[in-house]
Specification:
Elements: E1 3-7, H1 11-24, E2 28-33, H2 36-46, E3 53-57, H3 66-76, E4 79-84, H4 89-98, E5 102-105, H5 110-121, H6 129-135, H7 139-142, H8 148-158, H9 163-170, H10 174-190, H11 198-207
Parallel strand pairs: 1-2, 1-3, 3-4, 4-5
Length: 220
Amino acid sequence: MSRVALIDDHESVRLGIEAACERDGAGTVVFSGSTVGGYLEWRSASGEAPADVVVLDLTLGDGTTVTENVTALVLDGASVVIHSVADRPAAVREALSAGAAGVVSKSSALDDVLDAIRTVAQGEALNNVEWASAVEGDRAFADAQLSVREREVLRLYATGLPLKVVAERLGVAYSTAKENITRIRVKYVDVGRPAPTKVDLLRRAMEDGILAADGAPSAG
């Protein structure tokens, strides 16, 4: 039986899923809490192995981002099922980009949530309406409309160079390079792909072919 963790601000949601898991034998709930940080602390303190599946609320109240939460859980070794309202396509795209295995709507029946847990625990992707609507034909996801100069700044900055060095290499003022990074972040937010940290910018640069998958400058 798969080991399941539930991370949601609303205790009633967690209790409902936990009771359903016990009733149907879809999995054993080993953790129930309101933050990813709390889950990781529990893991560290208990010495427990990562949960097979983490059912994660799309937006938590502790100020963390979707990318931060999904990335932390995936790196820790769990598969992530996003438990989301259906009207958050930009956040769903962000979750899928960060490595979530799929999405199940909060309006879905509990049996659908259990089916999603079973599917992901078996190493399979979820092929549901929420997943398809978040990625299918999404041109905004493919192109943030960066200018040539913005792509040059992002290419250098995302490889790890300090912004001062980026400015020197491009022969522009530090303030100009900083303004470029600000505009780049705004453009990614506008298309539903926030990049608040340097790691996020690296991920966006690789997604858009500005850098190769290994973080090296793309030949394209």
